[in-house]
Write a sequence for this structure.
């Protein structure tokens, strides 16, 4: 006998959001803009001093896009100075990109 899947079941088994909270500053605005550009469908919420970015499944931060927005070279380790917190797992962090996603 095959189980039927309801819309509620699909929603609970759906893709979980991941996110990052970044300190809002002049230096970090290009990083935020780059994340928005590389993650269509992400949600951005501004609060005093902080920007919370969420997306279903994963967030990718690419060095190339950040450099385009900043107008200078940028190394991914600089991201540590921008973030306040994140939820999800850091699945990849190398010289070219950072990927935040759930392991399961």
């Amino acid at each position: 006998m095959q189980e039927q899947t309801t819309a509620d079941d699909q929603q609970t088994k759906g893709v979980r959001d991941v996110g990052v909270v970044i300190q809002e500053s002049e230096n970090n605005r290009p990083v935020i803009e780059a994340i928005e550009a590389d993650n269509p469908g992400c949600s951005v919420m501004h609060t005093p001093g902080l920007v919370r970015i969420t997306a279903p499944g994963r967030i990718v931060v690419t060095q190339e896009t950040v450099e385009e927005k900043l107008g200078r070279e940028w190394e991914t380790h600089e991201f540590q100075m921008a973030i306040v917190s994140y939820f999800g797992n850091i699945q990849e962090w190398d010289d070219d990109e950072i990927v935040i996603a759930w392991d399961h």
